[in-house]
Amino acid sequence: DAFVRGLVTELVSSAGFFVLAAEDIPGALRVLDGCDIDAAIIDIELGPGPDGFDLATALIAESPELAVVFLTNLPDPRLAGKSTKHIPKNAAYLRKSNLVDASELVAALNAVLKSEDSSSFRHDLDSQRPLAKLSAKQLEVLKLISEGFSNQQIADSRQTSVRAVEG
User: Fold this and answer.
1) pLDDT tens digit string along 11-20?
2) For residue range 18-69, what is the model confidence (pLDDT) as tens digits?
3) Hey, is 163 helix, strand or coil?
4) How many Cα atoms within 13 Å fall on the side-chain side of residue 15?
5) What is the DSSP string of 109-160?
6) CA 43 to CA 158: how far, in whole Å?
């Protein structure tokens, strides 16, 4: 959203970085056309259509050395239908609600730019994150429940029994 984008832009600029900002994927691609960027801070949830993982993949295809920081509300990439395989090597994954202060975002950005160990900036790997212990199947069922599907509808779509869905 515009407010968070503005705060992040101001924070990263004040840390000495030159910043370009965009509100969506088409805007990002327009802003970046002809630019040689070193890093991208990307939200995962970008509304209908492609998500932040898709944007990161497109940007890395153009610039394989691109450093990426995902800044998101999602505690787990599986909630966006992706796995940790969709997170580029040495990228950071920061949950907005887990950030203690703004310096953590700048530290994560510096770590991925310098190809340092970014594991301390991978909130998606925290074993205490919400829903961490759920399997992919359980997350799929939970997502269908949140979309208002009945147990019977979920069982039909997953080609299983209602009892399995309830379990």
Assistant:
1) 999 999 999 9
2) 999 998 888 888 888 888 899 999 999 888 889 999 999 999 998 899 999 9
3) helix
4) 17
5) HHHHHTT---GGGBGGG-TTSTTTT--HHHHHHHHHHHTT--HHHHHHHHTS
6) 30
Which tokens in the block code for residue 100? 């203690």
CA gap 167, 73 in Å, rounded: 28
Which are the contacts of 100, defined by CB distance < 8 A and separation ≥ 6?
none
pTM reported for the whole predicted model: 0.80
User: How far is Cα 149 from Cα 162, in angstroms, rounded to an integer?
Assistant: 12
What is the chain's length? 167
Instruction: State which amino acid sits at residue 108.
Output: A
* Tokens coding 42: 């990307």
SS3 category, 27: helix
